Amino acid sequence: MGLFGGIESGGTKFICTIGIDSDNLLTEKRIPTTNPEETIRKVIEFFNPYAISGELIAVGIASFGPIDLNPDSQTYGYITTTPKEGWKNVDLCGQIQRGLKVPVAFDTDVNAAAIGEQYWEKDKRLLDPFLYMTVGTGIGVGVIVNGSPLHGLIHAEAGHMVIPHNWQRDPFPGSCPYHGDCLEGLASGPSMSKRWGQKPETLPDAHTAWDLEAEYLAFALVNLIYAYSPLQIVLGGGVSQHAGLIQAARSKVQQFNKGYIHSSMIQEKIDDYIHLPALGNRSGALGAIAMAIKLAKKHIEIPKAV
Amino acid sequence: MGLFGGIESGGTKFICTIGIDSDNLLTEKRIPTTNPEETIRKVIEFFNPYAISGELIAVGIASFGPIDLNPDSQTYGYITTTPKEGWKNVDLCGQIQRGLKVPVAFDTDVNAAAIGEQYWEKDKRLLDPFLYMTVGTGIGVGVIVNGSPLHGLIHAEAGHMVIPHNWQRDPFPGSCPYHGDCLEGLASGPSMSKRWGQKPETLPDAHTAWDLEAEYLAFALVNLIYAYSPLQIVLGGGVSQHAGLIQAARSKVQQFNKGYIHSSMIQEKIDDYIHLPALGNRSGALGAIAMAIKLAKKHIEIPKAV
Questions:
Q1: B162–A222: do the CB atoms touch at under 8 Å?
Q2: B-chain residues within 8 Å CB-CB of A80?
Q3: How far is A161 from chain B (nearest CA, A)?
């Protein structure tokens, strides 16, 4: 029986999953993100019995970033300029590949989530190009064009776009260590905690925080719609799940667009156009498994591999 | 001998070109943009002798927008919600196709310019994905991913993205009839004319207008880099040509990025990374010819056509 591994590497934990497909998962383990040596060693230990038995065909890694995705680069597979303490310039992909000796697919957590939503959906509603935006500890954007995540100089880092910041309404300077008041600096979960002195999940629905949050997300969504012209948008991440937030953001998108992009998807069917992830908070982990399966399929075409 | 036609349809003129390739142009005519009936009739009259003689193989149209690019739509090939008087909901592509009875390729002026820069370049410097941003009468962005322009719900409309607007420094409310102070509303040629009471080309190099313009363009460029992660950016359009502007915008891009995207293209080789168009102000017209040639090549593969 062929098994596939998925690793969702995050700033607080690595979620390691083994399964045949999204409905048939064998086992899952959460490994706390400490230092790279210890964390990666524990990840390898978890998968190793399945690699040794020959059952593990391939592994997909859905990583926090920025990461190096250029196959010609000497640092391909590395986590690069992350603000996460101790994790700058870590060869995540290479260490796992050498440890397990199976093919490893590597991409950002948000590209993986986008792949997961597309690969595992049963009703094939997701049209291409589409994008997945996550709003949680960080803000990230994954983009699928012609069935593949958009890669270039690196990968989309649209969570750090600049948006209008009304200092009179919102004197909070932003929390991004690089940019201050970029989108992530103004609208991520930690930025909300800092601004309001309490975690977003404890802020009541009527709190002004949610109107401000909807405004920032709508600025971002309009910019993403104008940039990519996606056929669908999936809004994931912990903050996005807050009751009423996606509805408020949708209305503000219509309001900011002012009819400029004239499409029934925006004017009438915006509830379909911008929707929550079908896989809930499992998009990343199941996306990593989908990446492993897709990679294995590619390898199977080459006779010598797998 | 096979000839190809290029039409660059703009708000003030239609530039019609006939040629074999970018180095061998036969003739060119500028037709003023009046009402759609008269303008399109004159365009057809210009190309018609070559269509009747059988020499004209295909035509490419590089159009102002927004336009409908969905092949399944009843209004495919139409100019849709343009603010240009009299040109809303005009079947530009269909009328020309029916008038000339040759295959017609249709895309935005900026996507065409991007195609032109890629198709006609001799030293193959342009890496994929790359983008073409024009800053002139309007602001537009064309994006090439895997050799093709990015199409989705419609096409990129990133000229209308929102960016930070410091009202204290710049109390001008913006000139976009849809959004007010979006990028185009703050940084297009007409917005500069309105803000400063004189045309941009008459503003001296030392005028504060240029520092403000560089700042707005740099905000836009950073957002585009974060969104698409392009391997190269071509900055076209009349305003971009102003002496010193591209250099100022490049420095501000480095400054705003604050080392977040860690790439030698941004840190060291930004003069290569963001550059002026090799075809100068001919990218659109020559891009339209390239579109016609690419379309003809596709048709040749299907035995019955051409």
A1: yes
A2: 262
A3: 5
B212 plus B287 within the same structural domain: no
B-chain residues within 8 Å CB-CB of A258? 178-179
pLDDT tens column, A30-65 = 999 999 999 999 999 999 999 999 999 999 999 998
Supply A291's token pair.
């990446």
pTM for the whole structure: 0.91
Domain containing residue A179: CATH number: 3.30.420.40
Closest CB from A80, A141, A228 relative to B150: A228
pLDDT at residue B300 greater than cutoff 80: no
- Residue B162 contacts A where some CB pair is shorter than 8 Å: yes
Q: Which one of B150, B152, B227 has the shortest CB-CB distance to A158?
A: B227
- Give per-residue pLDDT as tens, A276-303: 999 998 999 999 999 999 999 987 654 4
Tell me if B162 and A223 make a contact (CB, 8 A cut-off). yes
Domain that holds residue B81: 3-111+281-299
Evaluate whether residue B116 is within a structural domain.
no
Domain count, chain A: 2
Give every CB contact of residue A45 below 8 A, 6+ residues apart in sequence: none
DSSP calls for B19-82: EEETTEEEEEEEEE---HHHHHHHHHHHHHHHHHTT-EEEEEEEE-SSB---TTSTTTT-B-S-
- Average pLDDT over chain B reads 93
Q: Is A155 on the interface with B (CB under 8 A)?
A: yes
Angle between helices A208-228 and A189-196 (to 10 degrees): 150
- Of B129, B164, B222, which has the smallest distance from its Cβ to A164's Cβ? B164
Dump pLDDT digits (tens) for A219-250: 999 999 999 999 999 999 999 999 999 999 99
Q: Which residue of B has its CA nearest to A66?
A: B261
ipTM of the modeled complex: 0.90
DSSP string, A103-156: -EEEEEHHHHHHHHHHHH-SS----SSEEEEEESSSEEEEEEETTEE-BSSSB-
* CB-based contact B14:B33 (threshold 8 Å): yes
Contact A178 B223 (CB under 8 A): no
In order of A15, A61, A101, B66, the CA distances from A94 in angstroms are 18, 11, 10, 45
Best mutation target among A162, A182, A221 (most B Cβ atoms within 10 Å) is A162
B104 found inside a domain: yes
